[in-house]
Design goal:
It is built from 9 helices and 7 strands, in the order βαβαβαβαβαβαβααα. By secondary structure, it is an alpha/beta fold. The protein has a 7-stranded parallel sheet, sandwiched between helices. It starts with a strand and ends with a helix.
């Protein structure tokens, strides 16, 4: 089972929306069974899932103490992918997710405040010894801010070659348990998430291959 953590010490960067969208997309293209793990006490991901029809991907809400055992149980049950949504501002909770993750996705909005805030998350990921990928999220279309943000973030780590833009369809879909792609299958939101998942999937596969070669 592969484990992706969506993490950011700063709140309001869209990590829950990305976690939900990536889980649905991964299951849509056959990368499942997918399980969402909501470790955020605000339970935004859980609220989204409660009104979702159908009710998959599966969602579970582990505590920090039960997270490792739940991961082990999911592996035993044959889950293929777990996506862990983390709370903002909690070093303890984020560290717990990082400890079990194979790859960490760090959403970052292209604003000076958000870019300055990523350092805290990067430090935590480096302390955990895990690989990370930045995704520029909630970018305003047709502006140069995303490109400028990419330059700044590249000093800290790898950046996904897909920018997720600020689109009404993301917010609309999350209000009733759907995703942008389910709301508008041919829309730009679906295109962005599809491309982002393809990239993340490839990166996770490379990591697994590298670990196999190392242990051989």
């Amino acid at each position: 089972m592969r484990i992706l953590a969506s993490a950011a010490h700063k709140g309001g960067v869209g990590k829950t929306t990305l976690a939900a969208h990536l889980a649905v997309e991964a299951e849509r293209v056959g990368a499942g069974p997918v399980v969402l793990l909501d470790t955020d006490p605000q339970e935004s991901l859980t609220d989204w899932h409660k009104v979702r029809v159908p009710d998959h991907p599966t969602l579970l809400s582990p505590t920090l103490k039960t997270l490792p055992n739940m991961i082990a149980e999911l592996r035993a049950r044959g889950a293929a992918l777990a996506i862990v949504d983390t709370p903002p501002g909690s070093r303890v909770a984020i560290s717990a997710a990082l400890a079990v993750a194979d790859l960490v996705l760090i959403p970052a909005q292209p604003s000076p405040i958000d870019l300055r805030a990523v350092g805290t998350t990067v430090d935590m990921v480096e302390d955990a010894g895990k690989p990370l990928i930045f995704v520029i999220n909630r970018a305003t279309p047709r502006t140069r801010l995303a490109a400028q943000a990419a330059v700044a973030l590249s000093q800290h780590g790898k950046i996904a070659p897909v920018t997720v833009h600020q689109r009404v369809e993301y917010a609309e879909a999350m209000t009733d348990g759907r995703t942008a792609g389910e709301l508008h299958p041919e829309g730009m939101g679906q295109k962005e998430i599809s491309e982002l998942w393809s990239y993340i999937d490839a990166q996770m596969r490379k990591r697994v291959s590298a670990l196999v070669r190392t242990s051989a």
